[in-house]
Write a structure and sequence with these properties.
The protein is α/β, with parallel strands linked by helices. It is built from three helices and six strands, in the order ββαββαβαβ. Helix 1 links the parallel strand 2 and strand 3. InterPro entries: PTS_EIIB-like_sf (IPR036095), PTS_EIIB_2 (IPR013011), PTS_EIIB_2/3 (IPR003501), Sugar_PTS (IPR050893).
Length: about 100
C-alpha cells in the first residue's frame, strides 16, 4: 500500500495491547497536538481496529497484529510512547500537508 495524503486523514487509531496506560497517554497527547485539524484520535485494542481508521499508530511490537487486524490501512509503528520521531513526523505532516507513508 502506498501512503495517504494528510488532507485525507480524518481518523487516527492508537492500537494497544496490554492496557497499561501508555497508549492512552499517547492518544491524549496526539489529540491535543492535532486539536483544530479535524482529525479524530481514538484508542482501541489492536485486535479491534475500526474499519474507518485512516492511520493506525501502534508500538512496533504490535505492527504485525495491527496489519492483520486492519489490512490496507496506513500503519505508523513507533518504538517509544512519548517523543517518538515517527509520531512527531505524522503530526507534522498532518499540520503542514504531505503524504504519510505506509
Amino acid at each position: 500500500m502506498a501512503g495517504i495524503e494528510s488532507k485525507d486523514i480524518h481518523k487516527i487509531v492508537i492500537a494497544c495491547d496490554a492496557g497499561m496506560g501508555s497508549s492512552v497517554m499517547l492518544a491524549s497527547q496526539v489529540r491535543k497536538q492535532l486539536k483544530g485539524e479535524g482529525v479524530e484520535v481514538v484508542h482501541t485494542p489492536v485486535n479491534s481496529i475500526p474499519g474507518d481508521a485512516d492511520v493506525v499508530l501502534c508500538h512496533a511490537g504490535l505492527a504485525d497484529r495491527a496489519r492483520a487486524s486492519a489490512p490496507g490501512v496506513v500503519l505508523v509503528p513507533f518504538q517509544v510512547f512519548i517523543g517518538d520521531p515517527a509520531v512527531t513526523r505524522l503530526i507534522d505532516t498532518i499540520k503542514k500537508g504531505g503524504t504519510v507513508d505506509a
